[in-house]
Amino acid sequence: MYKRTSDLSRIELLDNSWRVACSVARDMALFLANDDPQLGAPNALCSSNDVMYVCAPASCVAVAGMGPSVFSFHRHDIFWLSLSLSACSGSDAPSVSLEEVLVGVHTLTWTAMREILAAALAAGFFVPTPSDTVAAVRAALLWSAGNRAALRVITAQDFELLPDMPPSAHTRWWLATA
Hints:
Strand order of the largest sheet: 1-2-4-3
Strand content: 5-15%
Shape: globular
Number of strands: 8
Number of domains: 1
Distance between the termini: 79 Å
Structural class: alpha+beta
Largest sheet: 4 strands, antiparallel
Order of helices and strands: HEEHEEHEEHHEEH
Helix content: 25-40%
Number of helices: 6
Oligomer: single chain
């Protein structure tokens, strides 16, 4: 049985171990996720040490037959995580105003998402208990509220039109009826 003081030091040791593990994972995270070359957007691929998998492993699905570990995820998951870790400057000139950007029509570029996530991770952001995108975005919103100075400012140039959806592989049943 532990004394109260040793229990506290043991808890502190576990907490420090967890912080070190999170720090190591954060320092080793890659930023190589990209649209799936076969399926196209919004399907994206990443590796097991990519920032998307490190922050939200439950939102990533292993791709069978691809090695080393390749995971598929929805591009909007990393979009919302990036948006939660970014800031908007009120001093944008009218030509670069975010009012020109529409959610559902535009998305952040891969470059912008990588830069936003890299800046946040370098400033100390981590997901305390990585599970899914909802948990990662929630952690990002809580962290960003107290670390506004560390957030990357986004502008209209950081957005692009959503990529074209690939044509459906399924035949349209209503065209096959007489």
